[in-house]
């Protein structure tokens, strides 16, 4: 079983749609859950991070964690063409002295105007 | 807002040549990382660096790779004898103290080995 699984997409949605992006993980020791956004040929930039199970909201973005199912989600409300990017889930590795990240493959999202 | 910078943005080299990729971390950050992303694949950890020494390295980071902070500001990744399979985007990331602080990524260097 892979440590992190993420549907690579691509996912195409019309402008204004609600988008759901998901990752599953196998390591129950993961404690922090990060979502990065990566535009084409750019470095990843942090969108949100969560620590505990439950929801965290920031504007149009909501991060959700279900530790019992080892499942995390990122919801984007009222999606915009500028949201078109690759979304990466990332997990700081708790057994690493410097908390290297374990990344998902990324889901490519395209929001159509 | 402070940012991580990387040079060059694109490097083309012949197989067997040495390349040095450069990163300028955010000042006062203490932890430094190199990640690699082969086209169409996920971002993979290569190495982490703290207190002027390697803290951790992946199995990808073999003897042909090395890192250093030659002048206390730049953070470099050297590949001694490049192979075709080294072609990838290389990202530098840095973070401040604190266990789970955000890693800030640079824009990446695209390395093409011919």
Protein described:
The complex is a heterodimer of chains A (113) and B (114). In chain A, β7 (61-66) and β8 form a beta hairpin. Chain A has 113 residues and is mainly β. The model of chain A has no long low-confidence stretch (mean pLDDT 92). In chain A, strands 2, 4, 5, 9, 10 and 11 form a 6-stranded mixed sheet that branches. Chain A has a 5-stranded antiparallel sheet with strand order 1-3-8-7-6, with no helix packed on it. Chain A is globular. Chain A contains no helices and 11 strands. Chain A has strands at 4-6, 11-14, 19-25, 33-38, 45-50, 54-58, 61-66, 71-76, 85-92, 101-103, 107-112. Chain B is mainly β and 114 residues long. Chain B is built from no helices and 11 strands. In chain B, the strands form 2 sheets. In chain B, strands 2, 4, 5, 6, 9, 10 and 11 form a 7-stranded mixed sheet that branches. A 4-stranded antiparallel sheet of chain B has the order 1-3-8-7, with no helix packed on it. Chain B is globular, with a radius of gyration of 13 Å. The N and C termini of chain B lie far apart (37 Å). The A-B interface holds A 31-32, 34, 36, 41-46, 49, 51, 88, 92, 96-106 and B 4, 31, 33, 35, 41-45, 48, 50, 55-56, 89, 91, 93, 99-100, 102-108, 110.
Quick structural gist:
The complex is a heterodimer of chains A (113) and B (114). Chain A is mainly beta and 113 residues long.
Catalogue the unreliable spans of chain B.
none
Q: What helical percentage do the residues of chain A reach?
A: under 10%
Termini distance of chain B?
37 Å
Order of helices and strands of chain B: EEEEEEEEEEE
Shape of chain A: globular
Sheet having the most strands of chain A: 6 strands, mixed
Q: What is the alpha-carbon Rg of chain B in Å?
A: 13 Å
List keywords for this structure.
heterodimer, A: 113 residues, mainly beta, six-stranded mixed sheet, five-stranded antiparallel sheet, 11 strands, B: 114 residues, globular
């Amino acid at each position: 079983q892979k440590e992190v699984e993420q549907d690579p997409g691509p996912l195409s949605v019309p402008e204004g749609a609600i988008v759901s992006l998901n990752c599953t993980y196998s390591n129950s020791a993961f404690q922090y859950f990060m979502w990065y956004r990566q535009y084409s040929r750019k470095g990843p930039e942090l969108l949100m991070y969560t620590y505990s199970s439950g929801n965290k909201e920031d504007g149009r973005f909501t991060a959700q964690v279900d530790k019992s199912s080892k499942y995390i989600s990122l919801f984007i409300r009222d999606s915009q063409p500028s949201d078109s990017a690759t979304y990466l889930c990332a997990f700081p590795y708790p057994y690493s002295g410097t908390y290297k990240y374990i990344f998902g493959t990324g889901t490519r999202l395209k929001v159509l105007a | 807002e402070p940012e991580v910078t990387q040079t060059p943005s694109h490097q083309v080299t012949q197989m067997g040549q040495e390349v040095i990729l450069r990163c300028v971390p955010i000042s006062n950050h203490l932890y430094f990382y190199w990640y690699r992303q082969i086209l169409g694949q996920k971002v993979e950890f290569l190495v982490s660096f703290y207190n002027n020494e390697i803290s951790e390295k992946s199995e990808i980071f073999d003897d042909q790779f090395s890192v250093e902070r030659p002048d206390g500001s730049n953070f470099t990744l050297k590949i001694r004898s490049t192979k075709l399979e080294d072609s990838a985007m290389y990202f530098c990331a840095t973070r401040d103290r604190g266990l789970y602080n955000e890693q800030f990524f640079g824009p990446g260097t695209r390395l093409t080995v011919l």
